[in-house]
Amino acid sequence: MDCVANDAAARHGRPLDVILASLHYLELGCPDPAVTAAFYQQALGYHLEQQGGRIVAQAPGRRLIFTPGQAKTLLCAGYALPDAAELARLRARIKAAGWPATDGPTPLFSDAVTVTDPDGNCFSFGLPLAAAVAGDGVTGAWPARLQHVVLASRDPARIVRFFIDVLGFTLSDDVLDGEGDVRASFLRCSHEHHSFAVFKARQDRLDHHCYETTDWNMIRDWCDHVAGLNIRLQWGPGRHGPGNNLFMFVHDPDGNWVEISADLEIVDHQRPVGQWPHVERTLNIWGQGLLRS
After folding, report:
1. Torsion angle of alpha carbons 33, 37, 38, 39, nearest 10°?
2. Of 75, 144, 237, 270, which sits with the fewest C-beta atoms within 10 Å of its C-beta?
3. Residue ranges of the alpha helices (H) in the chain?
4. How sure is the predictor about 137, in pLDDT bands with cuts at 50, 70 and 90?
5. What is this structure's pTM?
6. The pLDDT of residue 140 is above 70
């Protein structure tokens, strides 16, 4: 297996201890899944399918599962791996770290390894089902690829250590307060600046999830689209410091922040970790920033 792992890493041009993955789907807890799913169908062009007690939503580059549960709860985040060799390598890494894991399929993966972070959030890493990939063929939806998910945590440092030490993510940037304490961390599992982030907050919860669109003009068009549906822009348009991406935010019916982004920074594996001050300008270099704590 070591030879297979080495070959897989070499093909993707990265260090052996770094994971290669992309966010494939999210499963969200919803008090009323039908209401929440209808919002995403209208606002983001999702095609909906009832599967037992949950609703599976798909559109090109994006997939959500709406399951009965508490609002603002991430039930699972699914990261797609490029091939079976990468899955075997990650399984070996998790086992070597001594972290509990389960193996087997998930609603949108044919095979996966699933772990729980120190706050109890579920993460699956696996191989996408052909039926899930078929969602990319849904027509009539504007470009917006599911790109990252962000959690709030009372103890973000242990979440960061889990993602680095157990899963093999790479730290891109930290946000530090005046005493040097970390208030936010942005981590990557590809050449994109971040596919996961965690903020310090008074409670452990889902903070937001984000879709990457094509460019500034498409941000404009998305803003016009949601405004035409009488969905209020909650924040933006603006530009983040970490990641340098353009953004706009709306709320879904459960109060989740939903971000649409463009021009996210592309980084090299050797890029040093950046540090930013915990001030409004870090979260929005153009104006108002919404500090989590």
Report:
1. 110
2. 270
3. 2-11, 33-44, 84-96, 130-133, 156-161, 216-228, 280-283
4. low
5. 0.92
6. no
